[in-house]
Design goal:
The chain is of the alpha/beta class and 281 residues long. It is built from eleven helices and six strands. The longest helix has 20 residues.
């Protein structure tokens, strides 16, 4: 495979970052949680792509804790290809099947080095899942009929000030999983240009939609439960002309992270109205 000059520079950088990460990480396990928290903050918050890429590479050596896998999966949508490819490589190293959904969604990345890293990670994780089916996540339902809609899912917003980046990341994954399971829907590739989207829609005779969403309220209920309300806007894609507004709400109680459960339930309830909204002329 012949790589462009930019791709060669990218891989040289990634290799150097991996070496630097290996030298920086100590083998002491007692500090693993603090180290992962620090690296996740860098991965999510640094304005320098080199820092984010190095953090992604370093996280691949810390073990497949849920927060590490979630942070790397979210970084498959980072604006810089070095970060996206580094995240895919680390997800391959961690070999956690929970990352398969995010990796599959990133398999059509516009940058060849990123696609190579993502597809290699998918191949490794799918091989592992076949060997150990008891730990494989349930597969995202696949549409069985003809594709009619091309749908992009935006990063959710929040009107609640204490919603964390992790809450938003999980909410976006809920949206992507739910939309991907709808009949006749194909998820849009990340970071497309409007011109490329219009050309694709024309060539395949598809209708494009964009899903925008916001967490509007979070209420703690008596007994420890949580109630969440959300708003989901359906717009055309790539032009973003609003077509419909859908509301959803859910209450979660009992054990576990009731906040995350309620956010996911509220988003899924709102998206129950999506097929009808897309079908309207």
């Amino acid at each position: 495979m012949r790589l462009s000059l930019e791709s060669r520079r990218f891989w040289l950088f990634a290799g150097g970052a991996a070496l630097l990460a290996a030298m920086l990480l100590s083998p002491a396990r007692g500090a693993a949680d603090a180290r992962s928290d620090y690296l996740i903050r860098l991965l999510k918050g640094s304005t320098q792509f080199r820092v984010r890429a190095q953090a992604a590479i370093s996280l691949g050596g810390l073990g497949a804790a849920p927060e590490v896998v979630d942070a790397l999966a979210s970084s498959l949508e980072d604006e810089h290809p070095a970060v996206r490819a580094s995240a895919a490589t680390s997800l391959s190293r961690l070999a956690d099947p929970r990352a398969l959904r995010a990796l599959r969604a990133a398999a059509q990345d516009p940058e060849p080095p990123v696609r190579t890293a993502v597809r290699a990670a998918i191949a490794k994780l799918e091989t592992d899942a076949r060997k150990h089916p008891e730990v494989a996540p349930p597969a995202t339902p696949r549409p069985t009929g003809p594709i009619r809609y091309y749908v992009a899912v935006g990063r959710p917003g929040s009107q609640v000030p204490d919603v964390s980046a992790e809450d938003i990341d999980r909410a976006q994954q809920v949206l992507r999983d739910r939309v991907a399971g709808l009949e006749g829907v194909e998820l849009a590739a990340p970071r497309e240009t409007p011109a490329s989207v219009r050309a694709l829609l024309r060539s395949r005779n598809l209708r494009g939609f964009y899903i925008d969403s916001s967490i509007t309220t979070i209420e703690r209920k008596a007994g420890g439960g949580t109630r969440v309300a959300v708003s989901v806007i359906v717009a055309t894609y790539p032009d973003r002309a609003m077509r419909a507004i859908m509301q959803g709400a859910a209450t979660a109680s009992g054990g576990g992270d009731t906040r995350a459960q309620a956010i996911g339930g509220a988003l899924r309830s709102a998206l129950n109205q999506l097929p009808q909204a897309m079908a309207r002329e």
